[in-house]
């Protein structure tokens, strides 16, 4: 056997990195290596085209095993189990209980309740009736008063004679996130931390596996923050709790052991896997500095939720695909519990179908893909290990900047956190506007026949928030297209785009497709054509269509003669259509403008700004 191996590998001599690089440079034929093959994340982390063992040779965390400090490889040693959680939005206790028991039967093992209408012991009894509280984790994600909810909850646990040591779940007490979003505390800063310390003491004493403080990191993600910002700001928030609690003489092991983090998982598959691994390591090292009596207090408990920032109103079934890759990232990254949001919540209340699909995404990942069976399946990947290290480094630098300002509260008060995220948002918004970042079905490859205006149900106005704004990356494009739908509903004619396809077959088809996707994002009617043999034929068809926009689709070489001829004939017929060229023939742009061309659309165009301009020209409000 050894001889066979020796012979096999002798036929494949090792290739050095230098040799790889030389071959790549030769194949690039003079093109810029950095521009062609090196990509960057939002925070500037460079992603190489390939990784080798030497890239991870000096990474310290590789010396640890799953379940061991600093927990980069996860907090579990034998499997990759996570709780499948679904939140029940119904406020009425009896109705919420009925819904909860139904979804438990369908495979969920963790329930989130909104306890705002739970006012007395009878309400809590109705809410939890018939639920096995030793097997199903209970998470109260909203309440008028978490201390009151705690008292009613423990009272019900004792009434049912439940083993309190087996009860799992959490309270979403997070006054710092409230301060971040609204610019104020629940009552006051001091009162909130007194209340939190009291809640912690009662939880530690009565239901030791329950978490009482939640760090809502998803708010940063869904405001448009980069990965390193999401982690750094979340860690700063958590560290603020550690400082405030220890000032009140709470044991660090008790505090850290009853903190839970909620992170959104986005669609950058490998980056998100690395994110979960990196943040566990950073948190472990932060808690370590407080010298906890129990090393397990350095473990981070993570609840993952699918991103809302990247979800769209148009082509909403694509949200299912986004949710699936996001759930995979969270599972492989080692989350402890997960919520997959229904694909249609961007425009209406979820129904039984969308809730079932969301729930089953996790069940398929467990029951058919077996992602819960293997601990840290990404461990050892040169790419993911390098990403983990890079994210940790970038996040740590930003975390230290916040600490230099005096901590999370001061960073919120000064506006630093909001300003940093807004700067990132400007870049991300521009990438979406220019289609460097694609939101399928919204700013690229729109479904031209789809209408959504009448399907949208009223949603909460997030602009009412006084601090950090939550939004979705697709909103600007959606507003543009919805205004077109509204314009038609008011009785106006939708602007139409005539594709003047002529000349080179391959180029005219490619540019017609490009123009279709470009103007389709605004919901305009696209009039495509198989191609015209001569200019006169195309001009006649364009005039007959009465289109508001005429887009010339051909090759750069042919534009020099075809476009001026067509423009001249359209002028003679007194056409008032806007004349657009699909492409960027730089050598003849001035010549074509003089002929009457008003716009050039190409891969470097700001799609959103261009469409906003036409929206204004057509008087669409």
Helices and strands in order:
Blueprint: H1 2-10, H2 17-28, H3 33-37, E1 39-40, E2 46-47, E3 83-88, H4 93-105, E4 110-114, H5 121-128, E5 137-142, H6 146-159, E6 169-173, H7 175-182, H8 189-206, E7 210-216, H9 218-221, H10 227-247, H11 252-257, E8 259-265, H12 269-288, E9 302-306, H13 318-333, E10 337-339, H14 352-367, H15 382-404, H16 408-413, H17 416-433, H18 475-489, E11 496-501, H19 505-520, E12 525-527, H20 535-545, E13 549-553, H21 556-572, E14 578-582, H22 589-595, E15 599-601, H23 607-617
DSSP strand content: 5-15%
Question: Which segments are poorly predicted (pLDDT under 50) over 5 or more consecutive residues?
Answer: 460-465
Report the count of strand segments.
Answer: 15
Oligomeric nature of the chains? single chain
Distance between the amino and carboxyl termini: 75 Å
Mean pLDDT: 95
Helical segment count: 23
What level of helicity do the residues show? 40-55%
Question: If you compute it from the alpha carbons, what radius of gyration comes out, rounded to the nearest whole angstrom?
Answer: 29 Å
Please tell me what the overall shape is. globular
What is the spatial order of strands in the main beta sheet? 3-4-5-6-7-8-9-10
Strand-pairing-aware structural class: alpha/beta
The biggest beta sheet reads:
8 strands, parallel, barrel
Summarize this entry quickly.
The chain is of the alpha/beta class. It is built from 23 helices and 15 strands.
Describe the structure.
The chain has 621 residues and is α/β, with parallel strands linked by helices. Helix content is 47%, strand content 11%. The strands form three sheets. Strands 3-4-5-6-7-8-9-10 form an eight-stranded parallel β-barrel, surrounded by seven helices. A five-stranded parallel β-sheet has the order 12-11-13-14-15, with helices on both faces. Helix 5 (121-128) links the parallel strand 4 and strand 5. Helix 10 crosses helix 15 (382-404) and helix 13 (318-333) packs parallel to helix 14. The radius of gyration is 29 Å and the shape is globular. The relative contact order is 0.08.
């Amino acid at each position: 056997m050894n001889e066979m191996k020796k012979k096999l590998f002798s036929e494949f001599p090792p290739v050095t990195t230098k040799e790889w690089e030389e071959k790549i440079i030769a194949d690039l034929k003079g093109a810029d290596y950095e521009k062609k093959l090196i990509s960057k994340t939002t925070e500037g982390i460079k992603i190489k085209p390939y990784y080798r063992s030497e890239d991870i040779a000096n990474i310290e965390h590789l010396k640890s095993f799953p379940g061991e400090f600093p927990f980069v490889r996860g907090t579990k040693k034998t499997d990759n189990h996570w709780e499948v959680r679904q939140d029940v939005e119904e406020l009425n206790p009896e109705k919420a209980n009925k819904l909860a028991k139904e979804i438990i039967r369908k495979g969920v093992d963790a329930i989130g309740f909104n306890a705002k209408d739970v006012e007395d012991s009878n309400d809590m009894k109705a809410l939890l009736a018939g639920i096995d509280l030793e097997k199903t984790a209970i998470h109260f994600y909203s309440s008028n008063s978490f201390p009151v909810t705690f008292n009613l909850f423990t009272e019900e646990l004792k009434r049912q004679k439940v083993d309190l040591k087996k009860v799992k779940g959490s309270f979403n007490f997070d006054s710092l996130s409230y301060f971040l979003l609204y610019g104020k505390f629940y009552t006051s800063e001091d009162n909130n931390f007194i209340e939190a310390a009291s809640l912690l003491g009662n939880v530690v004493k009565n239901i030791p596996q329950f978490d009482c403080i939640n760090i809502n990191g998803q708010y940063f993600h869904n405001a448009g923050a980069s990965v390193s910002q999401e982690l750094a700001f979340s860690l700063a928030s958590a560290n603020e709790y550690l400082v405030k609690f220890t000032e009140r003489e709470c044991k660090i092991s008790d505090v850290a052991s009853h903190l839970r983090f909620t992170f959104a998982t986005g669609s950058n598959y490998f980056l998100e896997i690395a994110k979960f691994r990196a943040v566990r390591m950073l948190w472990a090292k932060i808690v370590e500095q407080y010298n906890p009596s129990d090393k397990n207090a350095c473990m981070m408990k993570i609840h993952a939720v699918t991103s809302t920032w990247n979800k769209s109103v148009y082509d909403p079934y694509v949200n299912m695909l986004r949710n699936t890759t996001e759930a995979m990232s969270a599972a492989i990254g080692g989350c402890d519990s997960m919520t997959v949001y229904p694909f249609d919540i961007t425009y209406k209340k979820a129904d039984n179908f969308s809730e079932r699909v969301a729930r089953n995404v996790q069940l398929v990942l467990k029951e058919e893909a077996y992602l819960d069976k293997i601990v840290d399946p990404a461990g050892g990947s040169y790419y993911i290990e390098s990403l983990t290290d890079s994210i940790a480094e970038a996040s740590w630098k930003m975390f230290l900047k916040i600490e230099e300002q005096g901590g999370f509260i001061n960073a919120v008060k000064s506006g630093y956190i909001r300003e940093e995220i807004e700067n990132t948002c400007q870049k991300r918004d521009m990438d979406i506007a220019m289609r460097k970042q694609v939101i399928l079905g919204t700013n690229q490859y729109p479904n031209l026949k789809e209408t959504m205006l009448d399907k949208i149900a009223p949603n909460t106005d997030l602009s009412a928030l006084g601090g950090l704004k939550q939004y979705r990356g697709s909103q600007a494009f959606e507003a543009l297209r919805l205004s077109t739908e509204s314009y038609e509903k008011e009785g106006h004619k939708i602007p139409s785009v005539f594709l003047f396809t002529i000349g080179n077959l391959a180029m005219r088809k490619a540019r017609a497709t490009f123009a279709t996707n470009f103007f389709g994002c605004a919901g305009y009617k696209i009039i495509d054509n198989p191609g015209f043999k001569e200019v006169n034929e195309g001009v006649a068809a364009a005039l007959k269509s009465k289109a508001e926009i005429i887009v010339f689709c051909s090759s750069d070489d042919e534009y020099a003669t075809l476009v001026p001829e067509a423009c001249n004939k359209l002028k003679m017929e007194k056409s008032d259509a806007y004349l657009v060229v699909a492409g960027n023939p730089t050598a003849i742009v001035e010549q074509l403008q003089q002929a009457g061309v008003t716009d050039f659309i190409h891969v470097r165009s700001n799609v959103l700004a261009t469409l906003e301009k036409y929206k204004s020209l057509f008087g669409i409000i």
